[in-house]
Amino acid sequence: MEEGTRFHDRPIRFAEDWSIGIGGGLWSTGSAMGKYFLEHPIELRRHLTSDTDASLGIRKDGGKGHNTKFALELGSGNGYLSVVLALVLGTQKKSDGVEYFPKSTNVEVAVTDTAEHLPLIRATIESNLEHLQQVSPNISFVVTEHVW
To answer: What pLDDT, on the 0 to 100 scale, is given for residue 82?
Structure first.
């Protein structure tokens, strides 16, 4: 298992296997985008969520006060960016204690790629489960094949 950027003083791990093809590893652009997500969480949330437009990622669940943030990654490769995004979206508070999202916020990430990449995606998610659950118990992933 490889280690990428750190989040809350813990490494974000990812599986890598270049033998399965071009998506089998973490590209420098993926690493750079992951760092951007971590360094700009407020901007990321602002662009992915809106209280007034459900198409931008928020769903009010039956008026019960539970919000769900959705994200879809097409062509994930090894799942690294989906894990980074889930960590950022699942974080309840920033360092000064101001709440980003209510604790009832759910994060659902759909992660896709061709069939040979799905084991890498699952391994990346599984290697970060403890970290993800510490950030928020309300993070879930759907890993599915997408045929190009």
So the answer is: 96
